[in-house]
Amino acid sequence: MALAVTSSSTAISGSSFSRSGPSSDPKALQICSFRLSELSHVSQRRYSLKSLKAESHTRNDSLVTRASTLITPEVEEKEEDVEDFEQLAKKLEEASPLEIMDKALQKFGSNIAIAFSGAEDVALIEYARLTGRPFRVFSLDTGRLNPETYRLFDAVEKQYGIRIEYTFPDAVEVQALVRNKGLFSFYEDGHQECCRVRKVRPLRRALKGLKAWITGQRKDQSPGTRSEIPIVQVDPVFEGLDGGVGSLVKWNPLANVEGGDVWNFLRTMDVPVNALHAQGYVSIGCEPCTRPVLPGQHEREGRWWWEDAKAKECGLHKGNIKKEDDTTADLAPAIVHDIFESNNVVALSRGGIENLLKLGNRKEPWLVVLYAPWCPFCQAMEASYVELAEKLAVKGVKVAKFRADGDQKEFAKQELQLGSFPTILLFPKSAPRAIKYPSEHRDVDSLMSFVNLLR
Ligand code: SF4
C-alpha cells in the first residue's frame, strides 16, 4: 500500500522554499514513495525530543509506520540536541501555513502525518502538496461519519493520488458500548465515552507509529479551548513512536489563520470540500454529533450542542482544556468582569432563584439567564440581553441573571434545566414551572416573542 505521495513537480517561490541538494534528484531510489535521498538530510540532522531521554522505548508495530521505520533516522540523545519547540513556536509565530508545513515535513520526513477529519482541514493536504515534499495523511473512521465525508475521503485520495491511512475503533469495544448503552448514549451521558472508544483510542494507536502529527486546529475555532494553540508543541497528551510523555510533536500550521481565510484558500486552490459545507455545516465530525449552524453562530455550536461550550473537545485535543484548581476557576485568568451588568438586570443569589422556583403565583413574570461570565456564547448575547431588559422593564417583566457555573452548576443542572451556557428561563406569572427557551436565536426580537407569547 502506498503510504505517501511524492509531488516534487510543484514549484515554490520564495527563498524559504528553495530546493537544493539531494531532494532535487529525480532518479533517487524510492521506498514507499519516499526518496531515500530526500530523507538522507533527515538522518544527517541530529534531533531529539525531550522524552527521548527516557531509558527504554518500546517500538510499536503499527501498520501505519511499518514501512517508514525502515528509514527512521538515528536519534541521538544528547542534551545539546534537544529541540526547544517552545522557542521554535515563537520563531514561527509570523510564518505562513505553507512555511510551517514545509518546516514540519522537512524536520520529520516519513515520521509525520497529517490528521484529516474530512472537513476544511483538507487545506493541510493542499499546503503539503505545495511544499513539494512527500507527505502522509491519516484519518479516524469512527463508523459514524456522514456519507458526504466518505465521499470527500475518496475525492481527496483521487485528487492527490494518495491512500489515506484509516484507523478504525476496536470492534470489541464498540460492541460492548453499543450493547450496554445503545447507539445514542452520548445524548444521555455525554460524548466522552463514545469518543474515547471511537476516536481517542484509535488515535492513540495511530500516533504510536509517528514522531509528529499535523492538525488543522485554529485559535478561532473554540474560544474556550483553542485560544492558545501554539504553532508547534510537544504533544501534552499522546505518546509517539519512541514512547513516553513528550515523544510526540504536534504541529498546528493553521493556528493563527481565521476560518474565512482557510475558505478563501480552498476556493482559490479549487480543492475538493465536504458537500455538507454547502448545507450550513462548518465544523464536521460524526453524523449524530454535528449539525449545521446559522450565519453568525459560532462553528462549535454545531458540535455536541447539548453540552457545555467549554468542554467541546472530543479528547483528540484534550490538552487544550485547562485544568481547574477549583470549581469556580473555569477560565478565570482570562476573566476580569462579570457580564450582563445593567440596572435593568437583577443579579439573583441562590436563595433568590430558589424563591422564584417555589412561588406558584408571582407578581410579575421573570426572565432569567443562567450564565458563566467566561462563556463566549454568553458574552455574545450580552448586548441583546441588556437591550431586552431595558425594553421589558416598561412592560412589567423582571429580567435577571444567575451565575450557574462552579459551585452552582450541579444545582442548576438538577433544578434549573441547565444544559449548556447560556440557558434562558421564563418564569411565567402563574405557571409553577419555568419554561426553557428552546432556540439558539438569542437576538432581541426572538427573545421578546418568547416572553410575549408565554408570560
Ligand atoms: Fe461518538 Fe459522537 Fe464522539 Fe462520534 S463524535 S465518537 S458519534 S460521541
TrEMBL record:
Residues 1-25 are annotated as: Disordered. Keywords: Amino-acid biosynthesis, Chloroplast, Cysteine biosynthesis, Disulfide bond, Oxidoreductase, Plastid, Redox-active center, Stress response, Transit peptide. Its EC number is 1.8.4.9. One of its GO terms (molecular function) is adenylyl-sulfate reductase (glutathione) activity. It is found in: Plastid, Chloroplast. It holds the Pfam family Thioredoxin. It is an enzyme of class 1 (oxidoreductase). PROSITE patterns: THIOREDOXIN_2. It comes from the Eukaryota. It catalyses: glutathione disulfide + sulfite + AMP + 2 H(+) = adenosine 5'-phosphosulfate + 2 glutathione. One of its GO terms (biological process) is sulfate assimilation, phosphoadenylyl sulfate reduction by phosphoadenylyl-sulfate reductase (thioredoxin). Its cofactor is [4Fe-4S] cluster. Residues 7-24 have a biased composition (Low complexity). One of its GO terms (cellular component) is chloroplast stroma. Its main location: plastid. Residues 326-455 form the Thioredoxin domain. Reduces sulfate for Cys biosynthesis. Substrate preference is adenosine-5'-phosphosulfate (APS) >> 3'-phosphoadenosine-5'-phosphosulfate (PAPS). Uses glutathione or DTT as source of protons. Belongs to the APS reductase family. NCBIfam families: APS_reduc, PRK02090.1. This is adenylyl-sulfate reductase (glutathione).
